[in-house]
Specification:
Elements lengths: L2 H22 L9 H10 L1 H35 L1 H16 L2 H12 L3 H25 L3 H8 L5 H24 L3 H11 L5 H10 L3 H25 L5 H12 L2 H4 L4
Helix pairs in contact: 2-11, 3-4, 3-6, 3-8, 3-9, 3-10, 5-6, 5-9, 6-8, 6-9, 9-10, 10-11
Amino acid sequence: MRMPQAALALAGLIMLWQAVVVVVEPPRYLLPSPQAVLQVFLRQPDFLAHHMMITATEVVAGLIAGSLLGFLTALFVAALPRFGQFVWPVVLVLQALPVFVLAPVLVLWFGFGLASKVVMTVIIIFFPVASAFADGLNRTDRDILDAASLTQASHWQILIRIRLPLALPSLVSGLRVAAPLAPLGAVVGEWVGAAGGLGFIMIQANARMQADQLFAAMLVLALLSVFLRLLVDRLTAGLAPWAREEAHSFRSIPLSRRISPS
């Protein structure tokens, strides 16, 4: 999603929100108006910016660590299949556990500070990246692998020079899926226990029935998620240029030639 598209989507959501407030007229503590939420931004810009930076720090650290861990795990699973037979079931079990179950345990182990939120974000980021990249590594065209084996290339050379580059589009897809999910890990950790962050604001505002402040924190969190997705799109734009070139070439071929057996 590009920036103009994201801005249009946000504007449409705000217009729908205003329409619901005008037509339904819900109590302010249930659904504040966009104007009431805007007033929170005007009254407390430093307050929101401070807590946003706390959450953003947790999210960025978790996103980087989770992406790197997912990349290395998928690479080692492809390089050492026997290693994968032991590691992958553990990964699946961790992914199956709800994050709300893990959050109290992580806070107990790592405390109420930055570490527990980063670890929670890593857990959420890790599986989409590792799963997508491992799938890309395992789906390398068999004809290409057979041709590479004729050159007497080693297993590691084939992995690094052939399978890894061809799997980069899958890695990019995993990163694009994982990036908007990154704030979820940090916020869940802040809900369980924290002294700051957007999740902390939400819990405090909910307890005090300050719906306008709650929605302001939610809006900042949504903007942070969109920004992360756009940032990942920008950073990975040149990671696998040959994939885009192949796709462009494929689209330029007439349909009759695509399906022709000759």
